[in-house]
Amino acid sequence: MFTGIVQGTAEVVAIEEKTNFRTHIVKMPQALLPGLELGASVAHNGCCLTVTEINGDRVSFDLVKETLRITNLGDIQPGDTVNIERAAKFSDEIGGHLMSGHIMTTAEISKIINAENNREIWFKPQDSTLLKYILHKGFIGIDGISLTVGDVTKTKFCVHLIPETLMRTTLGAKRLGQRVNIEIDPHTQAIVDTVERVLAQRDAALATTLQNHAE
């Protein structure tokens, strides 16, 4: 599990390409190296990856076909940076919201509005059916960052970013048309799905009752 509080950014210094598979070699920040072991989970742009090799501050992670398909990590090139968070411990402060590191879709940056002390960014999810889980003032994970949803329309949503977030994460350098990873808040998803199921059962029961009366 992760908290959505990005601990730093890391440069992808090399990429080893194979068929439907690639390995990212990342220069990990020194502060995140202590205690890092093979098999540990580290979120890259919010996507949970497993440490496969450690060589000083060069740490390797394998990405399978599904990860490359679902996330924006397949767009990464050597020299690019990713948001990094190590797996949370039970004693850690949950400053954001609990996240699994399982990306559900990507979203394209469709609009950027700059103001004096914040930036408003609009995102258009690739899978529009997920918008029912994105609610005004709700939680959402964007490239591993726990953020609060601003406005929501039928096709897109926005967030408001303070200077600290822009400085500490990769969102400060994002441009129009670029893709970000999206993780829906699982609690919101569970509530929406439960309400939909209950309403569907109620409507089905009502339809059956009306049909019986008609007969």
Layout: helices, strands, pairs:
Elements: E1 8-18, E2 21-27, E3 41-44, E4 47-55, E5 58-64, H1 65-70, E6 81-86, E7 105-114, E8 119-125, E9 139-142, E10 145-152, E11 157-161, H2 163-168, E12 179-184, H3 186-214
Antiparallel strand pairs: 1-2, 1-6, 2-5, 3-4, 3-6, 4-5, 7-8, 7-12, 8-11, 9-10, 9-12, 10-11
Structure description:
This protein is α+β, with helices and mostly antiparallel strands. Helices cover about 20% and strands about 40% of the residues. The chain has 2 domains: about 10-85, Beta Barrel (Elongation Factor Tu (Ef-tu), domain 3), CATH 2.40.30; about 105-185, Elongation Factor Tu (Ef-tu), domain 3, CATH 2.40.30.20. The protein has helices spanning about 65-70, 165-170, 185-215; strands at about 10-20, 20-25, 40-45, 45-55, 60-65, 80-85, 105-115, 120-125, 140, 145-150, 155-160, 180-185. The strands form 2 sheets. The chain has a 6-stranded antiparallel β-barrel with strand order 1-2-5-4-3-6. The protein has a 6-stranded antiparallel barrel with strand order 7-8-11-10-9-12. Strand 9 (about 140) and strand 10 form a beta hairpin. GO terms for molecular function: riboflavin synthase activity. InterPro entries: ATP_synth_asu-like_sf (IPR023366), Lumazine-bd (IPR001783), Lumazine-bd_dom (IPR026017), Riboflavin_synthase-like_b-brl (IPR017938).
